[in-house]
Design a protein that fits this description.
alpha/beta, two-stranded antiparallel sheet, globular
Length: about 140
Amino acid sequence: MSNVASSGTSNADRVAWPAGTVYAARMTTPSAGPDFSHVTSQAQAEELARAGQLEKLLLLPEIFGGQPDLPHNIVYVPVGLAEVKRHIDENIVVPLAQQGTVTRYSATPEYAGNSFIPIAITVTASDPGSFSTTIAVWGEALTRS
């Protein structure tokens, strides 16, 4: 599988499979979710990770050749969302790749304002087939339909 990683978006409240669907973990916060607009640096994100509020997420996972120590491959998300993405990668994308349905992969974070925390992550697998899903993380991404 050809590997392409980029920045993207994450987390909502709906589950729908094939392409164009949204998969997200249920948030216990209000409809707009947490507000990470004040987190504008890696240092602040790492501090929130140490406090147990955020966790690292690899855009290109190790199972697809991603490197865990490359800064451009790491984003910080609320705890639990890395597991959501892992589930998508291992239980949807890997089987599609094994069937030959997809050979390319990207995970693209979407940002709002100056926040270091993406509001969403779009996972796309393609060529020759197509699969795409968005994980809404926080902010206006949580209110999209």
